[in-house]
Amino acid sequence: MNNTAPKITCIGGGTGLSTMLRGLKRFSPNITAIVTVTDDGGGSGVLRTELAMPPPGDIRSCLLALSNTEPTMAKLLNYRFTGGHLKGQSFGNLFLAAMHGISGSFDEAVAKMADVLAITGRVLPVTNENVWLTARFADGSRIFGESNINYAKLKKGCRITSVALSPKHPKALPESIRAIEEADIIVLGPGSLYTSVIPNLLVDGITDAICTCRGTKIYVCNLMTQPGETEGYTVSDHVSALLMHSGCKLVDYCIVNSNAAPEAMVQKYKQEGSTEVKCDYEVMAKLGIKVVRAPISFSQEHFRHNPLALAAVIMDIYKNNKKE
Fold it and tell me: CA 228 to CA 231: how far, in whole Å?
């Protein structure tokens, strides 16, 4: 381990977190990814129900993002079966499920898989407890289960006002708390606001550790709004939701994208109910959070964060903050 490189703790889940990790591992080997465990859909949901284990999907993606394996191994772990009872299931999920079967706890299973993949840094579940996500909507209704929330949001046509965990107050993994306390840089996001980022803040000890730590605290805002979750949200709407669920000033900096999406892509996303997230700078200033605007996206089939560009901006914020 390079003791001179900054300790970076990233908190989130889904595609956004794993994308960012691919860039950050080029700048520091001292990376800890703290990953949400509320997914109950798809292959992860099946394994969760049948094997009574936390969902492996987001954990698997982060392990692969930090791995130093041969391309064939990465391809194998990403392989999805195309028929039979295993149709749609990822081999990597099954691999982690098998590790869980021979380990004393889920975090131990994740650590063993990390050793097999020779990852840079480490990946931790935010908690070992079996937790589910619930959402409350502006009409007063309450929906149970992450996989049901997006559908309910689209059907109701009203905003999510808050999310919670069931059971309430699960205990954080001690190593996750320690990773936050010792971090030089803490990054929240990018990722689905209510289903990938905020659930981590609802685990006992996580928010307190973030709010009291001395590291540089950064939120990476999403490039596009998410149908069924954040339609019409501005940057400050995203940040306000984070602050509401934390009860403190959770971050000092917010990274927003300065690249405009190609018009053809804008129209494609519009048909799906998604638009570019607009930054309302005056509101962000009132929240006391510094906005860092930078070209951190690229366009292929989708409009995505550029791993290296995003990582470089995070490192620049950290270096400039140290000088202040």
Answer: 7
Nearest to 65 by CA among 17, 110, 97, 137: 17
Residue 1 falls within a domain, yes or no? no
Verify that 213 and 261 share a domain, yes or no.
yes
Side chain identity at 158, as an amino acid letter?
A: C
Closest CA to 200 of 241, 230, 172: 172
Asked whether residue 137 is assigned to any structural domain, the reply reads: no
Q: Give the range of the structural domain holding residue 51, as residue numbers without chain letter.
A: 40-121
Q: Does this model's pTM top 0.85?
A: yes
Count of domains forming the chain: 2
Are 72 and 99 in the same domain?
A: yes
* Burial bucket for residue 249 (CB in 10 Å: 0-12, 13-18, 19+): middle
> For residue 235, which of 263, 205, 256 has the smallest C-alpha distance?
256
Q: Return the structure tokens found at 220.
A: 């990476």
Q: Where are the alpha helices (DSSP H) in the chain?
A: 14-24, 42-51, 57-65, 71-78, 91-101, 106-117, 146-156, 174-181, 198-201, 206-212, 235-246, 263-271, 281-286, 307-323
Give residue 257's pLDDT.
97
DSSP letters spanning 61-74? HHHHHT----HHHH
Burial status of residue 275 (CB atoms within 10 A of its CB: 0-12, 13-18, 19 or more)? middle
Task: Tell me what the pLDDT averaged over the chain comes to.
Answer: 94
Our measurement of the distance from residue 107's CA atom to the centroid of its chain's CA atoms, rounded to an integer in Å, reads 17
